[in-house]
């Protein structure tokens, strides 16, 4: 099989200084800027009123009792169970007892929920706008430039990825266009930002997208649109069917078996 | 800053706290980059860490403990500069500072009034609520402190610290059933905390020593609590100490205790043989701990000196009794 001759393209070395480096520098600077913009735009978490805190923590108390019931004596457990089940069923711990039994408010009309959505919007905006601007800038000035030759061979499949904006059919996929370099920068600058801004920075889009995928489990539990009364009823049910098993039963024999003097 | 600064200073022995606060002027010489004047290098320097501010808080507490009010004030100022005067935690810290520099009860009452003003504006300010309770305790208004704590645990029943404090206050008043209840709440939040198990055992032991009708039931519970604390933490000195005390007491009352009285609720008292064996084990373990800790054997350090001395005294007194 005949050896395929190595393609050589004579590029102006100025391409390197005036395209490759500017794109990289601009990407890094935008990342830093985005980080600080996000920090500035972040709203403080809204303070909760005392009844709301009471509602949440009373529910947590029931959950604690359910999971750790075995450390207290059967009599103590029974007393607590009776108290909590009664209080849960009457709705004593509710934030506003008058609203008991009504359907949960629509999360869209709840101002607290709107706040959270605004925060998410802001984060999205801080990501979208610079990206659009830089893409436009690169398209306007540098589209169609082949700027770098990768030092390793690649198959033809990579052509569409690495030579975006260059419509040359026979060019070796090792050659890379400016737009592809930009795309590579988006994904590859994470470690640079980590070095510059610390590990929990807001500069990288990847981290932000990850964050949107899985919001914290705690937010789900007390999030908007969840009816606390239903939660209390469910917890009362869980508590009342719980079988109690006292840990301290026979602990002295267990201890005598394990301790060797 | 040294690593011991990242732990709350209440757990530090006095010598370490003193050393930390003596180094405070050196530590505080350079303000952190975040609040110092703007420079281009601050744009690139690593972001501030939460640990830095924890260290400032702990340094301030250590300084207050050792009477270095100037350094404490500097810490407070820098914290205020960073987080603003309206921050809940800072309001409590500032109150703490004022409490520390107050000369007499009249000034303390002024601080108390300030707390109450803050709390009428914002009743959900947890740190200040806690400070107010602590100050009530300082002013010897125990009943008011108990009432305030009861309100606090009603709105925040998952706060182990508050429950423990409440139990402590009840013990001080001799209200043991209430104290036991509060300690059990702490255990429900932290089910494997051996020190809390031992503490509950101590409260039960105190309740059992008052000499009312259900004393032996309390002592049986106390015995089991101490056993559990040792089960959770091997060679736990406090647990063995309590176990020895409880078993000695039980041995003196078990023979004449009526068998019927304990079958109504809870577990029956352990039989005489078990209690005797537990007593022997506790004595042997205690003497082993004391011996090895005094000799400074590797792996046996870390016991608090006062506790080792107390254990030795207990062993000596029981030995004297047997000889007699």
UniProtKB/TrEMBL annotation, chain A:
Lineage start: Eukaryota, Fungi, Dikarya, Ascomycota, Pezizomycotina
Membrane-protein topology: Multi-pass membrane protein
Protein name in the entry: ER membrane protein complex subunit 3
Record family assignment: Belongs to the EMC3 family.
GO biological process, one term: protein folding in endoplasmic reticulum
Organism of provenance: Hyaloscypha hepaticicola
InterPro entries, sorted: EMC3, EMC3/TMCO1
Repressor in keyword set: no
Stretches that traverse the bilayer: 15-37, 127-152, 179-197
From TrEMBL, chain B:
Entry function: Part of the endoplasmic reticulum membrane protein complex (EMC) that enables the energy-independent insertion into endoplasmic reticulum membranes of newly synthesized membrane proteins.
Protein's UniProt name: ER membrane protein complex subunit 2
Homology family: Belongs to the EMC2 family.
Compartments, record wording: Endoplasmic reticulum membrane
Keyword Transferase belongs to the record: yes
Primary site of residence: endoplasmic reticulum
Organism phylogeny: Eukaryota, Fungi, Dikarya, Ascomycota, Pezizomycotina
Keyword Metal-binding attributed: no
Chain positions of TPR repeats: 160-193
EMC2 TPR-like domain boundaries: 106-203
GO cellular component term of the entry, any: EMC complex
Keywords assigned by UniProt, alphabetized: Endoplasmic reticulum, Membrane, Repeat, TPR repeat, Transferase
GO MF entry, a single one: transferase activity
Transmembrane portions of the chain: none
Topology of the protein relative to the lipid bilayer: Peripheral membrane protein
Any Pfam family the entry gives: TPR_EMC2
Subunit structure: Component of the ER membrane protein complex (EMC).
Domain of life: Eukaryota
Signal peptide: none
């Amino acid at each position: 099989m005949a050896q395929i001759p190595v393609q050589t393209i004579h590029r102006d070395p100025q391409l390197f200084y005036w395209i490759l480096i500017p794109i990289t520098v601009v990407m890094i600077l935008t990342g830093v800027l985005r980080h600080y913009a996000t920090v500035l735009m972040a709203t403080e978490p809204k303070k909760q009123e005392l009844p709301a805190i009471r509602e949440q923590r009373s529910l947590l108390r029931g959950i604690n009792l359910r999971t750790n019931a075995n450390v207290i004596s059967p009599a103590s457990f029974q007393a607590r169970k009776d108290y909590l089940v009664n209080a849960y069923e009457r709705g004593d711990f509710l934030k506003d007892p008058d609203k008991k039994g009504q359907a949960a408010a629509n999360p869209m009309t709840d101002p607290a929920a709107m706040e959270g959505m605004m925060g998410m919007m802001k984060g999205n905006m801080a990501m979208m706008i610079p990206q659009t601007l830089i893409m436009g800038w690169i398209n306007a000035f540098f589209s169609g430039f082949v700027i770098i030759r990768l030092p390793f061979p690649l198959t033809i499949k990579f052509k569409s990825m690495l030579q975006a904006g260059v419509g040359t059919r026979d060019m070796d996929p090792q050659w890379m266009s400016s737009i592809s370099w930009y795309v590579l920068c988006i994904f590859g600058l994470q470690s640079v930002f980590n070095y510059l801004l610390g590990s929990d920075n807001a500069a990288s889009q990847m981290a932000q997208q990850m964050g949107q995928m899985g919001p914290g489990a705690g937010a789900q539990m007390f999030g908007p649109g969840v009816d606390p009364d239903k939660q209390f009823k469910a917890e009362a049910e869980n508590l009342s069917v719980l079988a109690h098993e006292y840990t301290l039963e026979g602990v002295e024999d267990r201890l005598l078996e394990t301790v060797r003097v | 800053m040294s690593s011991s600064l990242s732990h709350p200073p209440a757990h530090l022995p006095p010598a370490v706290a003193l050393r930390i606060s003596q180094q405070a002027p050196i530590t505080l010489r350079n303000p952190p980059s975040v609040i110092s004047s703007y420079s281009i290098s601050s744009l690139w320097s690593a972001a501030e860490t939460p640990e830095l501010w924890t260290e400032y808080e702990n340094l301030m507490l250590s300084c207050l403990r050792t009477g270095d009010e100037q350094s404490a004030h500097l810490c407070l100022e820098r914290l205020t500069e960073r987080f603003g005067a309206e921050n809940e935690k800072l309001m409590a810290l500032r109150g703490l500072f004022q409490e520390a520099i107050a000369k007499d009860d009249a000034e303390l009452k002024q601080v108390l009034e300030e707390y109450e003003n803050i709390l009428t504006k914002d009743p959900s300010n947890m740190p200040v609520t806690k400070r107010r309770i602590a100050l009530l305790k300082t002013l010897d208004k125990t009943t008011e402190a108990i009432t305030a704590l009861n309100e606090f645990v009603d709105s925040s029943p998952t706060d182990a610290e508050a429950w423990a404090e409440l139990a402590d206050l009840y013990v001080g008043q001799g209200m043991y059933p209430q104290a036991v209840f509060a300690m059990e709440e702490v255990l429900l939040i932290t089910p494997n905390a051996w020190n809390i198990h031992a503490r509950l055992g101590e409260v039960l032991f105190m309740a059992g020593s008052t000499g009312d009708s259900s004393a032996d039931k309390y002592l049986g519970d106390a015995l089991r609590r101490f056993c559990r604390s040792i089960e959770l933490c091997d060679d736990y000195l406090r647990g063995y100490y309590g176990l020895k005390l409880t078993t000695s007491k039980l041995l003196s009352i078990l023979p004449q205790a009526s068998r019927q009285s304990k079958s109504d609720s809870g577990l029956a008292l352990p039989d005489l043989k078990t209690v005797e064996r537990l007593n022997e084990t506790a004595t042997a373990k205690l003497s082993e701990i004391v011996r090895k800790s005094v000799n400074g054997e590797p792996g046996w350090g870390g016991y608090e000196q006062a506790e080792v001395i107390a254990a030795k005294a207990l062993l000596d007194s029981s030995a004297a009794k047997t000889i007699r």
